[in-house]
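Note to self: keep these together.
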Amino acid sequence: MEPNRREFIGVALGMSVLPARGADAAGAFHSLTLSEAAQQIRRKTLSPVDLTKACLKRIEQLNPKLNAYITVDADRALARARELEHKPWTGPLHGIPLGVKDIFDTAGLRTTAASKVYENRIPDIDAEVVRRLKEAGAVIIGKQNLAEFACTSSGLVSYFGAAHNPWQLDFQTGGSSSGSAAATAAGLDFGPAGNDSGGSIRIPSAWCALTGLKPTHGRVSLRGNLSCEWSTTAVGPLCRSVADAAVLLQRGRIDLLR
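Structure:
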């Protein structure tokens, strides 16, 4: 019998694999889709704090092998999750842990574009897409690896080293959204926004068995995006399902045309 998705990734990463699916399986929150996690948070059967802790623990366990995250913002993520736990539900991103491709500015958190040039750069203002994700209730847990300045399709060229494909660690993830795809495929978060000029969302989504969407140029704001190319770049989601991509793009309120 062929292994399912979770078993395949577990074997590839040398991890023990829980036998059942969902948060009822001894807290296996990483196996939920964004939409499923949102439903549980809305019903209060799942806590934003527990979900964030689970993602941070999984990052601690798997990121040394995947190199999907450049920077993890654990303290602020947990503080944000605790704040949201006591607020009324605001929509499907409420309390959902998301990573951010390290091409988008994040206020008070270094944004490197995977380059030595910006190794210690800390912006003062969030990129517009980050601002909107936060406004919609997302918990930003860190910054994800990528091809330097989002300039190659392999994902191999990063000052911080290449991200690794969770399905097979010696395989490429595709790029430039390499760390974003690796993180979401391995259950380290629930679906970040990436940017795509010539395949930077679509290639890693295909190579890591995700759903990726490049929207029409200008549909999502490019403000605060450090990409090396602007004229054809579009910001869009990388997720585990089509439904999740729709949630992130539209109900996540990053869509300027909503």
